[in-house]
Amino acid sequence: QMVSGDGGSPLLRLVDLYTSDASDEPASAVAHGGPLRVHAIFEADEDIPDPGISLWIENEERVRICSVGALEHGAALSPIRRGERVTVMAEIANAFTSGRYFIGCSVSRGSGGQDVLLFLERAVEFYVFGGEGIHGLVSIGHWFEITRESASAVR
After folding, report:
1. Quick check: 21 and 27 in contact, CB under 8 A?
2. CA-closest candidate to residue 48, choices 123, 119, 115
3. How many secondary structure helices (H) and strands (E) does the chain include?
4. Helix (H, G, I), strand (E, B), or coil: what is residue 151?
5. C-alpha distances in angstroms, 20 versus 7, 17, 85, 123?
6. 62-115: pLDDT as tens digits
7. Residue 95 falls in which region: left (phi positive, over 0), alpha (psi -120 to 50) or beta
8. In sequence order, what are the beta bridge partners of 44?
9. Which residues contact 27 (CB under 8 A, 6 or more apart)?
10. Beta-sheet strand order (sheet of 85-93)
11. What per-residue confidence (pLDDT) applies to 2?
């Protein structure tokens, strides 16, 4: 599912926000265990120094499952220039249990992120399928080690 339009402040507009799988085609349902990609496209009407872009996922009960901040070449984002279109794609390991989820996004400016230019909660909904066997919110990678020996050998 996609959201398009003129959301946001006069300084910045959200052009598009959608989820996809590895095909990068918009998809409102993605398979558990496969990649989950979140795409956000913004356009700036003015220069934005020290921008910060965040994306998050929450479930139907409004529990925030994860949140990611965009980096550019492993560092803070460079300034966004007037008339520039910025496309952000975050690939998240889809360890979510089956169900309905929501994407939120925000854009701020300034080193502390105090000047919020755009804040959208539950902007896009999507569904995860194939994770019915998970008991919890997410499947966390783990391993076990079990050793056995005779009880009489321990004494």
Report:
1. yes
2. 115
3. 1, 9
4. helix
5. 21, 10, 20, 15
6. 999 989 988 888 888 999 999 999 999 999 888 888 999 999 999 998 877 778
7. alpha
8. 12
9. 19, 20, 21, 126
10. 3-7, 12-20, 35-44, 85-93
11. 40
What would the two tokens of residue 133 be? 């066997």
Q: Measured between alpha carbons, how far is 11 from 49 in angstroms, rounded to an integer?
A: 11
Q: Which amino acid is residue 74, in one-letter code?
A: G
Calpha distance 126→66 (Å, rounded): 15
Which residues neighbour 36 within 8 Å (Cβ) at sequence distance 6 or greater?
A: 19, 21, 30, 91, 92, 93, 94, 96, 128
Q: What is the pTM of this model?
A: 0.79
Instruction: Please state, in angstroms and rounded to a whole number, the distance separating the CA atoms of residues 48 and 61.
Output: 34
* β-pair type (99-109, 29-31): unpaired
**Residue 72 bridge partners (DSSP):** 75
